Amino acid sequence: MDAPLTATILIVSTTAALDPSTDGAGAVLRDVFNGDGTGKWTVTDQKIVSDNVIEIQKQIMQWTDGPDAPNFILTTGGTGFAASDSTPEAVTALLHKEAPGLVHAMLSTSLAVTPFAMMSRPVAGVRSKTVIATLPGSPKGAKENLQAIIKTLPHACLQAAGANSRQLHAGGTKKLEKEAGITDGSRKSHDHSHSHDHQHDHRGHNHSHEAGHGHDKLVRHTMPASNPLSNDPNLGPTRRHRESPYPMVSVDDALSMIGEFTPEPEIIQRKVNKEIIGSVLAEEVRARENVPAFRASIVDGYAVVVPQDGNLKGVFPVVGVSHAAPGEIAPLQEGEIARITTGAPLPPGATAVIMVEDTILKSMTDDGKEEKEVEIQAEGVQEGENIREVGSDVKQGTTILSKGEQICGVGGEIGLLASVGVAEAIVYKRPVVGILSTGDEIIEYNRSGELRLGEVRDTNRITLISAAREWGFEVVDLGIAKDKSNSLEETLRAGLRQADVLITTGGVSMGELDLLKPTIERSLGGTIHFGRVAMKPGKPTTFATVPVKNNAGQRLSKVIFSLPGNPASALVTFHLFVLPSLHKQAGISPVGLARVPVVLGHDFAMDPRPEYHRVVVTVGADGQLMANSTGGQRSSRVGSLRSANALVCMPSGKGKLEKGSKVQALVMNTIRSL
Ligand code: AMP
Ligand code: MG
């Protein structure tokens, strides 16, 4: 072997994440690499994360999906049966290939030492070009597991990294064993360097934090072919899941996954015109020019040359006129004055302007059309009076707008850009949203004639299209897809070509015709990040990413939100989940609806699930924000959003929250005074 293979170590322990000095496994594992694996391995990185699926996955993916992916990642910790132990789940979801052989080797080695090795749940496999294995948290257990596989690992790593497998295998197993330094003897009885009476703590670290944080269940990040959770629609209703196999995630976890898997904003150049409204600047914009570009008068009056003593009492000849128009102006001498209008350039030599209100017309030209002499009665006149100096509003070269600022529709920013002649700006591309409805029962909302039994007018599409536009996003209307896999797949594919984000509604409950999840996973090769959220309304909300290639042939991923079919649920989940993703892609920060404290105007019943109760918030006489329910909150009642300008975040519970209680509300629309 030429260059040594690279390995990284991930210590999974909430305790060690807080205090790295409590970790003992890292050093022990490095010793194994330097001992049994001498010359063959370099450990290039070591990180500590807490027992948290997302943190574990984030770190592993940072390693495996980057340009310098290591050959081998080993984790230590979180493989036991405690509620917080979730390393195997986190890792399994990332694997492209599983490696039960490695697991077997690790377990049988440890089992030879203690039956308590059964309490470890190791997994191993390959993600992209990296072999991954999970070791127990106890330094001894971890060491022994690594020793069990380290000699054969280089072979697996080389294959995973793309080495020619025929060449690797030429010469047979014997040759492989010899190269790996495995002798017949060492194969039969693994050389344990430790005594046999040690206590085997395969449960990992002592977790001092509370169990059951957020979601410690499987987060799907599957290769669709390997283990999709969705129904296989070909199997029919008798074989479908009778309960959703998707773990229920909290709203906060759902939002953090959306944040994590939504692509970074794209940067483009845009003309400064109405199309740029709503865009966020991806650059700092500097003034190209001074405003004003010339010395200009602030008032209508007479340009003067202020004498030393500031005394301007007397009758002065009007020698010229300066209008607010481009052109040459004759210079002014002391003792002369020139009529000037607001915003007009000062004649060269003029040092102040006297307001017309402070003057008296003395004489006219013979034809009576022009002023000849004007009397001024001013004392203590200062140079610069009533003059806007060059660059006094905006100085050339100064920053007028910062990166991250939004050019909003009420005018301030676009006005500033226009004033200094910035005709193009670098901004984040606002994502284009493709919106479709699904369901055999759904008909166009405006189809004439009476409804047949079972028909439902498409409420969601026009509702979401309007909401997305109102928030400043361009929309592609993708129509209604039938509850047939191929119709859905076709519509989604067409949507992915035209839009950056897809929103579907319907087809995510538990019925046999609920085809969104299977189509995303099985036909589009997508990854469902969550398929159930603990909330009301909107429990079946589904968030996925699908791999696509852009016109340049680059691989990227696009997000799909599959919202529930019930119209109130669809609109609430759009605001709660889709909007933050659109905001992130548009470079808008902070993302999502603004959160404000409100006071309940009456008693609100609580639900076992956190509820997003539709309310009208008004500013009371005392300046306090008061929330009143819009009435029936059933998820099919889109009327619950009529006149609603906010969603009250009702905590889960029994009974009621009383009138006057303080709660948080998410603002969707303008709040008005009573
Ligand atoms: P599904 O998730 O497809 O089972 O839909 C749940 C409920 O929402 C059903 O009663 C559907 O008829 C209804 N629904 C689905 N899509 C729409 C839509 N676009 N407009 C109005 N109702 C819908
Ligand atoms: Mg349906």
Topology, number of strands: 34
Percent in strands: 25-35%
Helical percentage: 10-25%
Overall outline: elongated
**Low-pLDDT stretches:** 184-225
Oligomer: single chain
Mean pLDDT: 89
Chemical compounds bound to the protein: adenosine monophosphate, magnesium ion
SS field, number of helical segments: 16
Structural class: alpha/beta
Radius of gyration, in angstroms, nearest whole number: 36 Å
First and last CA, distance? 78 Å
Give a quick account of the main beta sheet: strands, pairing sense, barrel closure.
6 strands, mixed
Describe the structure.
By secondary structure, the chain is of the alpha/beta class. Helices cover 23% and strands 25% of the residues. It is built from 16 helices and 34 strands. It has a six-stranded mixed sheet with strand order 2-1-3-6-5-4, sandwiched between helices. Helix 2 (25-34) packs parallel to helix 6, helix 5 (100-111) packs across helix 6 (139-150) and helix 13 packs parallel to helix 16 (567-585). It is elongated and about 120 Å long. Magnesium ion binds at residues 438-439, 483, 506-507, 513, 565.
Layout: helices, strands, pairs:
Elements: E1 5-12, H1 14-18, H2 25-34, E2 41-49, H3 53-64, E3 72-76, H4 87-92, E4 97-98, H5 100-111, E5 124-127, E6 130-135, H6 139-150, H7 153-160, H8 165-169, H9 172-180, H10 184-188, H11 251-261, E7 267-271, E8 285-286, E9 296-297, E10 301-304, E11 312-322, E12 337-340, E13 352-355, E14 359-364, E15 371-378, E16 387-388, E17 399-401, H12 412-419, E18 424-428, E19 433-438, E20 442-443, E21 456-457, H13 460-470, E22 475-481, H14 485-498, E23 501-505, H15 516-523, E24 527-530, E25 542-549, E26 555-563, H16 567-585, E27 594-600, E28 604-605, E29 611-619, E30 625-629, E31 646-650, E32 656-657, E33 662-667, E34 672-673
Parallel strand pairs: 1-2, 1-3, 3-6, 11-12, 19-22, 19-23, 20-21, 23-26, 27-30, 29-34
Antiparallel strand pairs: 4-5, 5-6, 7-18, 8-17, 9-16, 10-12, 10-13, 11-15, 14-15, 24-25, 25-26, 27-33, 28-32, 29-30, 29-31, 31-33
Bound molecules: adenosine monophosphate (AMP) and magnesium ion.
The site of magnesium ion has 7 residues, from loops.
